[in-house]
Design goal:
single chain; 443 residues; alpha+beta; seven-stranded antiparallel beta sheet; five-stranded mixed beta sheet; globular
Length: 443
């Protein structure tokens, strides 16, 4: 249990950003973010009497992040996080730069990356690295255009996702690349695999959108692949260790190993085959795998989750919604939604079909219960949320196939939200991923 939230909230009797933004399908306001324990469970806030609705405001960041994430040797999180009545935006200062990050899980990821950057910079100062880089610098790689003299510099100067040659098995010769994939000649040489291995040792995503992290990993991975430098895991491991990027996901070791060992083009082939097997339509598969904001990690985790539901009615619906993502934050939203769907299917009740409710994906299980998964840090009771949830409940009352319903979120509902929902026939499941993880552990 954590200390009560000391919120400095603004309450107004007028519409505001809220959970209902997600309910009406404005995904960008309801995106992604949550990792286990993120919005912590027993937070309490006092709502002044006579004020009906909540909006956002400034909340203590320390009520959502543990002390070692608030401040460490290489970073500091500013004391207040900005709430839009659904998600939190954190400000993080570090020698690696200033980061403004929406979502608690995303903030945790950036903080791990800052620690990784510091470790990588320490490696670059070592004599072993300098020697290996000199050796790597003497290497020449034949490419379509000729001889590449400066592989690291050339890689950094290329537009992201622009290069499409020397790819595996022909998949990406016709497919688009996400913004986070390496240039093909680097994959061919082996530096890309070295970087993936390095990333998992550091506990970060090899396809992170953090450009500073990518540049640091490029240098060290090049020294390892082309210069023969051997990386000592004990000297570079940071908080989270191998696979920390998947800490919110109940995945098999084989999936983690696939993310390390297989090039993005190979992952796309595997993901395409798995989605075809559960009857997702070909145009939707192609649009998903070619989407610029879904990294190979995102694609593989989503595919693992949705394929695990089997060939159920409505699989296409998930990808119709996911393919509408406009930002990385949108993409992360769908990663968490997919994770909740898979966890519910395995640990609560088998999902019979996916449905569309106000442009959100909802799951109807074989017992007739409807689950609506959302990714949110801290959902407040706003005027708009009140109206949309009442409309949702009314529509369900007319649907004889639905025997009950609940909203599952990755974070927390405000006390006001919880109190209001006591009079409405829709259940609430906060900390959904942690709840599913406990079910998996038999707790």
């Amino acid at each position: 249990m954590i200390k009560p939230l000391r919120h400095r909230l603004i309450f107004r009797n007028q519409p505001a950003n809220s959970l209902c933004l997600a309910v009406v399908g404005v995904v960008a306001a309801s995106v992604a973010s949550i990792e286990t324990g993120v919005a912590q469970a027993d937070a309490v806030a006092v709502v002044p009497a006579g004020l009906a609705f909540e909006t956002g405001g400034l909340l203590p960041a320390s009520d959502f992040l543990p002390a070692n994430y608030m401040q460490a040797d290489y970073h500091r999180v500013l004391p207040e996080a900005k709430s839009d009545a659904l998600n939190l935006t954190y400000s993080i200062e570090s020698p690696a730069g200033y980061f403004s990050v929406q979502g608690t899980a995303f903030a945790r990821e950036r903080i791990r990356e800052i620690g990784a950057i510091a470790k990588l910079r320490d490696i670059r100062k070592s004599d072993v690295f300098v020697s290996a880089l000199k050796k790597a610098g003497a290497s020449k790689l034949k490419t379509v255009g000729g001889i590449l003299e400066d592989p690291i510099g050339t890689v950094r100067s290329l537009p992201k996702g622009a290069s499409r040659f020397f790819n595996s098995l022909g998949e990406s010769l016709s497919g688009e690349k996400s913004r986070s994939e390496d240039a093909s000649y680097k994959q061919f040489l082996g530096a890309s695999k070295a970087k993936r291995e390095l990333a998992f040792k550091l506990g970060v995503d090899p396809y992170s959108s953090n450009e500073t992290l990518q540049a640091e990993m490029d240098d060290v991975a090049w020294a390892a692949a082309a210069g023969g430098m051997v990386l000592n895991v004990a000297t570079i491991a940071v908080d989270g260790g191998v696979g920390a990027v998947l800490s919110g996901i109940n995945v098999t070791e084989s999936l983690k190993q696939a993310l390390i060992s297989k090039a993005p083009a190979d992952l796309r082939i595997l993901n395409r085959n798995r989605l075809q097997a559960v009857a997702v339509s070909e145009p939707l598969i192609t649009a998903f795998l070619d989407h610029p904001y879904f990294s190979p990690t995102h694609e593989t985790v989503i595919t693992e989750a949705i394929a695990g539901l089997g060939k159920i009615k409505g699989n296409d619906l998930f990808f119709k919604q996911a393919n509408s993502s406009w930002t990385e934050v949108d993409a992360r939203f769908f990663v968490f939604v997919a994770m909740m769907l898979r966890g519910y299917h395995e640990k609560v009740a088998p999902i019979a079909e996916l449905r569309d409710y106000s442009t959100l994906v909802a799951a109807l299980d074989k017992e007739g219960k409807l689950m609506v998964p959302l990714a949110a840090d801290y959902a407040m009771w706003t005027e708009r949320a009140s109206g949309r949830i009442d409309a949702f409940a009314a529509s369900l009352a007319e649907d004889t196939t639905v025997k009950g319903s609940s909203i599952w979120i990755t974070g927390q509902f405000s006390p006001r939200f919880q109190e209001e929902m006591k009079t409405r026939p829709v259940g609430l499941q906060p900390n959904a991923l942690e709840h599913l993880r406990q079910l998996a552990a038999g707790k």
